Amino acid sequence: MTDTQDTATALFRELTGRTPDGLWSAPGRVNLIGEHTDYNDGFVLPFAIPHRTVAAVGIREDGIGRVRVASTFAAEPVEVALDDLATLFPTATGSEPAVPEWAAYPLGVAWALAEAAGRAGAGVDIAIASDVPVGAGLSSSAAIEGATASALNDLWNAGLDKTALARIGRKAENEAVGAPTGIMDQMASMLGEPDAAIFLDCRSLEAQLVPLGVAEAGLAILVMDTRVKHAHSTGGYGERRASCERGAAIMGVPSLRDVSVGDLPRAEELMDDVTFRRVRHVVTENQRVLDTVRTLREQGARAIGDLLVASHASMRDDFEISVPELDTAVEAALAAGALGARMTGGGFGGAAIALIEADAVETVSDAVNAAFAASGFSAPHLFTVTPSAGAQRDA
Ligand code: ADP
Ligand code: MG
């Protein structure tokens, strides 16, 4: 058993006095490229990381239709009647959430899954542990959703496939938590495979596995978690979404997916400067995802560095979602010899990634640490990741 599996099992015992019926887990993710394209019906290229959230889950023995959730993240468990889920969610906009925010992720999944399956199953106890850094842009939210959804799908015999479970996670996040996120994180966490990225068309939800071959190329991917906490459901994220919708409306298309790089001169004439730059980020980022997939297939991971660098510049200058810590991490990694680097995730904090020589982990890490110290930033959290398996039943 991994430490996280042990911790989830121990928490379940503490909560119930029993052993769980099973363990289910789902990973966090790193987005290799394709940022803020998902809610524009565009393309993304994430991969699942080794860090996972584990749900130890058991059907209640007393036959009572209640769901209880505990997490090592929270001091107190939360318990609600399954029949009440539909009255708690969706959470009305502007209203106080009916349960603590963290509990809205697993309980929102229970609600959305019961709705998709047409019924809730038996009462359950859920104990959650995780080694996915929270709020770092590595999608601890999709990990908790994916672990819970996988467990309830099995224990309630709902028979839903992975894409359906990803949609359920997104619905929980959008409508129970109130965070207006796209589908990328959930699809990456559900569908991840070792050594592959997931090339996802967010319009059709068609997913193709693209071999990354990072280790074969003698490379490694370094995550540089700035420890600057992003707040997804507030402010900047919603404002960026609104700009994208405005841009699409001005162009007369359903979404920015339908705008190509060749349309940008016309977009520039029609829009104010800020809206145009938001649009230009999304349109060029979609193209960079397509270029990255082609480059990976034709030339391998060594050749994608410049695309990562261009993606970061676009997020920093056009979409304006970077912060000094992210820029410092990217610049320091590149100066220390990284082939490419970019912030990953929704922005306003969180993590950046660097594609580096496998034998340069220490050199690059030292350089990033030194740059943070020189800028007076608190030390970043640096670690390498390999593309890993998606959601699964562990035991
Ligand atoms: P990210 O997905 O980048 O880590 P989010 O803000 O989307 O950041 O999601 C983080 C939130 O998800 C946490 O604040 C918490 O509410 C919830 N969460 C994530 N992991 C856990 C966990 N193991 N236990 C309880 N809640 C969790
Ligand atoms: Mg998240």
From TrEMBL:
Location(s), subcellular: Cytoplasm
EC numbers: 2.7.1.6
Main EC class the enzyme belongs to: transferase
GO MF entries: ATP binding; galactokinase activity; magnesium ion binding
All residue ranges annotated as the GHMP kinase N-terminal domain in the record: 105-192
InterPro entries: Galactokinase, Galactokinase_bac, Galactokinase_CS, GalKase_N, GHMP_kinase_C_dom, GHMP_kinase_C_sf, GHMP_kinase_N_dom, GHMP_knse_ATP-bd_CS
Subcellular location, principal: cytoplasm
Purpose: Catalyzes the transfer of the gamma-phosphate of ATP to D-galactose to form alpha-D-galactose-1-phosphate (Gal-1-P).
HAMAP family: Galactokinase
Protein name per UniProt: Galactokinase
UniProt source species: Microbacterium hydrocarbonoxydans
Origin organism lineage: Bacteria, Bacillati, Actinomycetota, Actinomycetes, Micrococcales
